[in-house]
Automatic annotation (TrEMBL):
One of its GO terms (molecular function) is protein histidine kinase activity. It comes from Rhizobium leguminosarum bv. trifolii. It comes from the Bacteria. Its EC number is 2.7.13.3. PROSITE patterns: PAS. Pfam families: PAS_3. The keyword Oxidoreductase does not apply. It catalyses: ATP + protein L-histidine = ADP + protein N-phospho-L-histidine. Keywords: Kinase, Phosphoprotein, Transferase. It is an enzyme of class 2 (transferase). This is histidine kinase. Gene3D superfamilies: PAS domain.
């Protein structure tokens, strides 16, 4: 792929793998993002281009990861230090996508935080677990349609267990 293709929209990434960029205007609490970030976070691309409140993005973060992500972003805004965080988000289909985010808060001439910019990209850390979950979900549908309630109950328990964060899966702030 040539440089022009890369600069003007062609990508070597699939839609699910494409990194997304954003800017957050702190005074208005609006995050402006490209369609790649919209896809990662399961949001409407037209709305992300015209700006959404930051809470709309935070709502798409896995509940177990949300506190550490919010803390890392807050610390970056307060200190001006770069932000780097690994966490999980829910895409449009409700699937969990492991991502890494990098960003930085910029200040106005008076030293007040004003703009925050960054990039979020999928890390594929959960590919095997997601595949296992997908197979278990398919087996659950078959068990239910076949009237195998004990098997369906067991598969539901497995899916609940797979949804729990594993020690290596929890959000890590760097």
């Amino acid at each position: 792929m040539n440089l022009v293709d890369r600069a003007f929209g062609a990508s070597e990434f699939s839609d699910a793998e494409e990194p997304g960029i954003f800017t957050w205007e702190l005074a208005t609490d609006k995050v402006y993002a490209d369609s790649a970030l919209a896809n990662l976070f399961g949001l409407d691309p037209e709305q992300t281009l015209t700006g959404l409140p930051v809470i709309r993005y935070l709502d798409r973060i896995h509940p177990d990861d949300k506190p550490s992500v919010a803390k890392a972003i807050s610390e970056s805004v307060i200190t001006g230090n770069p932000y780097r965080c690994d966490y999980r988000v829910f895409d449009r289909s409700g699937q969990i996508v492991a991502v890494a985010a990098l960003g930085r808060c910029f200040r106005d001439e008076d030293g007040n935080p004003s703009q925050y910019a960054g990039i979020v990209f999928p890390t594929n850390d959960h590919v095997q677990q997601d595949e296992l979950s997908a197979h278990c979900s398919a087996a659950l549908k078959i068990a239910r349609s076949s009237g195998l309630q004990a098997t369906a109950d067991a598969l539901e328990a497995i899916l609940k267990e797979l949804a729990k964060p594993m020690p290596s899966d929890v959000a890590q702030v760097h």
